[in-house]
Design goal:
This protein is an alpha/beta fold. It has 7 helices and 20 strands. A hairpin with a 2-residue loop joins strand 1 and strand 2. The radius of gyration is 21 Å and the shape is globular.
Length: 403
């Protein structure tokens, strides 16, 4: 056993049983990334005792786990720059265009019940000056909604893509994003839901050879949010940055489960998610898993999660994982921190005449600004900071020191 950047790495065996060992490593089925399948029967209704569901309030998702098709979708307003096309595909065409089959029960039932998928295509070589925008709006929680969205970005294209969710809904969702060789893509998902919304989704990303992809996931509203975020590589040299921020308050549940499959050599990934939590019964869950396969030599990866507890009673679960099947890597590591306000920061600000509530607001803003400034898309960064400000306006009166 060898170690690289603090992470355990499996060294290549030197004896004649090397091939058998490598085959065994490759064949291990991890509970952290279960089998994907289009067949609904391959995804049993969870009880909440399964490893991948143990933090999720499955009793609050009952209809999204079992109900038949309802014909309900979210309203969608498209803003498409010139050259970008949109339409719908059905049946076998959905499976052909998707990155991968469903990986859990809710995404499988979304695929089974949606009936069609919205397909947005950015042609190869197209360089966009304006973002592609898909604004989804829910109009009620009376009936479950199911939908699929597939986005394809051709080789060598340059695109910024914004998915925004707002309103009230109970929705199971499946999103696939396929990025061609050498393309550069910024993908931002803003969940600005009403307080009664429930959103469970699988987002699957395929990074092409030598492509560069940056994603931002912001969960700022809703009663229950569960995002299964999966990424893999189609060729060597792909680079992926994933940033996220989330607020959890008033008994809400926010869960982000990430899986990055380094299945190609010389690929890179960097993950940084941050959460602010307050109120009794609120739970923020972040589970990160990076799998480095035996053929993924020369890769580099790092995953980090930071949580800031604003009041007593809020809880954060943060679980980073690394699964490494080759020691021939450039680097791999992870970190996780959960803590309260920094007393020295607060003292510094208050000693300069800043009231306590405003000092706490500034600390939280600074906690998230480090993520927002990496976006590199001014109009999107402004929207995110405006959404953060709305959250701070709503929660600031209830701040108190965590125990």
């Amino acid at each position: 056993m060898t170690r690289k950047n603090g992470a355990a790495a499996v060294a290549e065996p030197a004896d004649t049983g090397a091939e058998a060992v490598r085959g065994a490593l490759e064949g291990v089925a991890s509970h952290l990334h279960p089998k994907v399948s289009w067949e609904l029967d391959d995804h049993p209704v969870p009880t909440g005792r399964e490893e991948v569901w143990r933090f999720t309030p499955v009793h609050r998702l009952e209809d999204l786990l079992t109900s038949p098709a309802t014909g309900v979708e979210l309203d969608c307003a498209l803003r498409l720059p010139e050259g970008v096309t949109a339409g719908f595909v059905e049946g076998d065409a959905v499976r052909a265009a998707a990155v991968e089959p469903p990986a859990d029960r809710t995404s499988a039932i979304a695929a089974a019940n949606a009936g069609r998928a919205r397909l947005v295509t950015v042609p190869a070589g197209l360089e966009l000056d304006e973002p592609v925008e898909l604004d989804f709006t829910g109009t009620g929680v009376d009936r479950p909604a199911y939908q699929q969205t597939i986005i394809g970005v051709g080789a060598g294209a340059r695109a910024r893509i914004l998915l925004r969710f707002e309103g009230s809904a109970r929705i199971a969702d499946k999103i696939d994003v396929r990025v061609g060789a050498g393309a550069r893509v910024d993908l931002v998902t803003l969940q600005d839901w009403a307080p009664d919304a429930v959103h469970v989704a699988q987002s699957s990303l395929l990074v092409g050879r030598d492509a560069t992809v940056r994603t931002v996931q912001a969960s700022l509203g809703g009663a229950v949010t569960r995002m299964l975020e999966r990424a893999s590589y189609e060729g060597a040299g792909g680079e992926l940055e994933q940033f996220g921020l989330y607020f959890v308050d008033s008994g809400r549940h926010v869960e982000h489960r990430l899986f990055v499959d380094h299945n190609q050599p010389l690929s890179r990934s960097n993950i940084d998610y941050r959460g602010a939590l307050q109120d009794e019964g609120s739970l923020g869950v972040w589970v990160g898993d990076v799998l480095i396969r035996k053929q993924a030599e020369g890769i580099s990866t790092y995953e980090a999660n930071k949580n800031l507890l604003l009041t007593a009673g809020a809880r954060a679960e943060s679980i980073p994982n690394l699964e490494i099947a080759t020691g021939r890597i450039e680097g791999a590591g992870h970190s996780s921190t959960t803590g309260r306000f920094d007393d020295e920061q607060l003292f510094y600000l208050r000693s300069r005449g800043i009231p306590e509530d405003e000092a706490r607001r500034l600390v939280v803003q600074g906690f998230f600004v480090e993520i927002v400034r990496r976006i590199g898309i001014p109009e999107v960064a402004e929207r995110l900071m405006a959404a953060v400000q709305r959250q701070l306006d709503a929660i600031a009166p209830d701040w108190g020191a965590p125990e």
